[in-house]
Write a structure and sequence with these properties.
With 226 residues, the chain is α/β, with parallel strands linked by helices. It has one domain (7-225): Uracil-DNA glycosylase-like domain (Uracil-DNA Glycosylase, subunit E, 3-Layer(aba) Sandwich), CATH 3.40.470. The protein has 8 helices and 8 strands, in the order H-E-E-H-H-E-E-E-H-E-H-H-E-E-H-H.
Amino acid sequence: MEQGDAERPGAEQWLPERHTLSALRSAAADCRGCELWRDARHIVFSQGKASAAMMLVGEQPGDREDPEGEPFVGPAGELLNRALVEAHIDRGRVYLTNAVKHFRHHASGKRRIHDKPAVVHIEACHPWLEAELQVVDPAVVVCLGATAARAVLGRPLSIGRSRGQRFDGPPTSPDAEVFVTTHPSAVLRLRGKDGFEEAFDSFVQDLQVAAQASAGASAAHESRSG
Ligand code: URA
Ligand code: SF4
C-alpha cells in the first residue's frame, strides 16, 4: 500500500520493522489505519506471551476494555474466564487478542453503544493480527465469533455450521489448527433465559476440544524435539 493512501485504509504502514510483541504493541498505539482510533480512548492490543500455545481471538474491545487497554476485562471477559476455568485452560498461558484493536461504537446520551466492526475495519486491522500470528506461532487458534473467524480465515462463515470443525491455519501460520466457536457476548445475552446453560456448556466444550488439540500438538512437538 502507498503511504498515506486515504482511499485504501490499512495498518501496514504503521508496522515496525522488528516483529516482537513489545515492538508491535508500542507501534500499534500510533496506528491510524482506519478511523476507529479517533473515538477510542486506548488501543487494546493483546494480553499474553509469545510462547503461548493457544491464541484466542475476539472481535474488538468493548466499553470496559477501551479505557483499561486490556482485552476481555468486562462482562464478556468474566464469562470467558468462567468458561476457561471449566475447560481447564489457564488464562495466564493463553494469548488473547482481537480482530480489531479499537472500540467501534456510537454515542447514545452518555452511553457508548457497541457497533460491530465492518469488513473494512477487519481488513484494515489485519496486519496486526497477522504479525501476532507470526510472532506467537500458536499451535491452536480459537476464533470467538464470526468477526474473529473472518479475520483469521479470511472468509465469512457461519458459526453454527463451523463450530466443532478443525480448519487449516492461515498462510502465515499454516501449521496452526483453527477452531471456531461462539463469542462469549452471544452466550451472555442468553443469561436468565432458556438456553443459557446449554449455550455455556457448548462454549466450554468447544474450548475443551481446542485445549485437547493444543495438548496433542505440544506432545508431538516435544517428542520431535527429543
Ligand atoms: N469482546 C471482545 O471481542 N473482545 C474483548 O476484548 C472484549 C469483549
Ligand atoms: Fe489501526 Fe486497527 Fe485501530 Fe484501525 S482499529 S486504527 S487499523 S489499530
